[in-house]
Amino acid sequence: MGILEVKNVNKRFGGLQALGDVNLSVAENTVHAIIGPNGAGKSTLLNCLVGKLIPDTGSVMFAGQSVLGRKPYEINQMGISRVFQTPEIFGDLSVMENMMIPLLAKRDGSFRMHAIESLEDERELRAEAEKMLDEVNMLDKQDMHSASMSRGDKRRLEMAMCLIQRPKLLLLDEPTAGMARADTNNTIDLLKEIKEKRDITMCIIEHDMHVVFSLADRITVLAQGTPLVEDTPENIKGHPKVKEAYLGEAA
Ligand SMILES: Nc1ncnc2c1ncn2[C@@H]1O[C@H](COP(=O)(O)OP(=O)(O)OP(=O)(O)O)[C@@H](O)[C@H]1O
Ligand SMILES: [Mg+2]
């Protein structure tokens, strides 16, 4: 049994069947990629994994517990964090202040700095943030305003903001979308490092096949809301059903 188990998930938006009978099992400490053409239902599926969307039918279990209907901070407390397509950082805050937000959010969903309870509390939060920044080689940037950083550094900061919650499952929706090749390669290196050093399972949605084949242990190909094939990267390469799924789209 996988740490993440999706069973018979269906989701309709009006007349559109965005997800049709999705089954997915993700083994602990692996990287599972979900690929598929535009509109295949990838983001919809990810939204179901973080409790943001409730499927019409089916179940989503993480470590034996249902994620459905839970608030974002409850999802964080279960050990799930998510990286969005565009880095979710606060440009007018410093790197250090950004790092404190997920620590506060994990407590009760509060994003406010005044949720810091005391000087002692602030010292502890700072110490934890410094430790994490050190782990991702960003300690020297702690006082920088995040708006002035490169796209790659913003992504690195956002990743650190997820990792500081010590997730068991990291969900990534196109983490390299719109990036220059150099930033994409940096992100691949960072994700490889995370994979090697941590006890973590990752589910990644990605259009860039270079990213997928560099990282994934298993790949699910989604087309029109339904998994077409699931296999290892070696077997997915050149698979006729994958070509069929991407027909009409430059993949
Ligand atoms: N909230 C919504 N209301 C109505 N339709 C929606 C909604 N969210 C998604 N859809 C539709 O559901 C289908 C799947 O969308 P989804 O965003 O999951 O695709 P995707 O695979 O992530 O695509 P992309 O690669 O472009 O990000 C699309 O046809 C989309 O237009
Ligand atoms: Mg999407």
Automatic annotation (TrEMBL):
Keywords: ATP-binding, Nucleotide-binding, Transport
InterPro entries: AAA+_ATPase, ABC_AA/LPS_Transport, ABC_transporter-like_ATP-bd, P-loop_NTPase
Residue intervals of the ABC transporter domain: 4-249
Listed GO MF terms: ATP binding; ATP hydrolysis activity
Domain of life, per lineage: Bacteria
GO cellular component: plasma membrane
Protein name: Amino acid/amide ABC transporter ATP-binding protein 1, HAAT family
